[in-house]
Design goal:
- The protein is mostly beta strands and about 270 residues long.
- The chain contains 3 helices and 15 strands.
- It has helices spanning about 1-10, 35-40, 160-170, and strands at about 45-55, 55-70, 75-85, 95-105, 110-120, 125-135, 140-145, 145-150, 175-185, 185-195, 200, 210-220, 230-235, 245-250, 255-265.
- It has a 15-stranded antiparallel beta sheet that branches.
Length: about 270
């Protein structure tokens, strides 16, 4: 279970809804322009996701912006993710993992300067570290203080958190895009096809009337745990910020669903 939830975060909680196509949708409507980097950086958001497999509630994922700070002399946003398991699940019990990232940006994308994890239930801090050296075109990876590998870095990339924001820039655009991902001490790539048809979606985070949403479908060229490698399907709110609403990731046991259940936003 710990590995399964870890993989969901490594996918950056890219929101998804499994289907064989873009869906019937509503009558063609004008979709608000996708956000640009400044739009997303102009708000502070907090997300709470519920993770489910079938009828089982596996746990929760929370995503928070801690602060705007600097790292290696560069302005960054410090992002904090927490995964907490459902203690009532047999053979799992209490599992808590923390994920941290220093995320920077340019005019067109988001990327990471550092990513690191803590295994709280095992009392292991700085368990995994990825240091991004853009001038040196290298990513240095570490496990429990020991150097593991040096990976090639030729364009802006990340280990998950920055991808969460990158995907929002293109949702509803009708464009194909890709993004380099560094996980499991390897370099991979996620390819996304963004659809531009509006659909109706019911969200626990926005009770009342259904919201308008758009889909993204993709492929992850990654060797993940539980045999995951392949399709990603996604759905975002069709608003000015493309809020991630739901994710469904297929692993060997079936589809695991990540649903947004609470969302808070402030300006600045």
């Amino acid at each position: 279970m710990k590995t399964l939830l870890l993989w969901l975060v490594y996918l950056g909680c890219v929101v998804a809804f499994a289907s064989s196509g873009p869906g019937p949708g509503l009558p063609v409507q004008t979709i608000p322009d996708a956000p640009d980097v400044d739009d997303i950086m102009g708000v502070r958001e907090d997300f709470t996701y519920e993770v489910r497999y079938g009828f089982f509630n596996l746990g929760t994922i929370t995503i928070n912006i801690i602060s705007d700070t600097t790292y290696s002399g560069q302005p960054v946003r410090y992002l904090f993710y927490k995964i907490l398991s459902n203690r009532s699940i047999p053979f799992v019990g209490y599992k808590e993992r923390h994920y941290h990232a220093y995320m920077a940006h340019n005019d067109t994308t988001f990327y990471e300067l550092k990513f690191w994890t803590d295994s709280i239930h095992d009392e292991i801090y700085d368990e995994t570290i990825y240091d991004y050296d853009y001038p040196g075109e290298s990513v240095y990876t570490f496990e429990e203080g020991e150097a593991v590998d040096t990976l090639e870095l030729t364009e802006p990339g990340g280990s998950g958190p920055a991808f969460f924001y990158f995907a929002r820039l293109h949702a509803g655009s009708g464009r194909e895009v890709d993004y380099p991902i560094y996980i499991s001490h390897e370099k991979g790539k996620v390819e996304l096809q963004n659809y531009d048809r509006i659909e109706s979606y019911s969200s626990a985070a926005f009770p009342g009337d259904d919201v308008e949403a758009v889909r993204t479908r993709g492929y992850a060229d990654l060797d993940g745990p539980f045999g995951f490698r392949g399709r990603i399907d996604a759905i975002f709110m069709a608003d000015e910020l493309r809020i991630p609403l739901e994710a469904r990731v297929r692993v060997w046991i079936g589809n695991v669903v990540v649903r947004l259940v609470d969302y808070e936003r402030t300006e600045g």
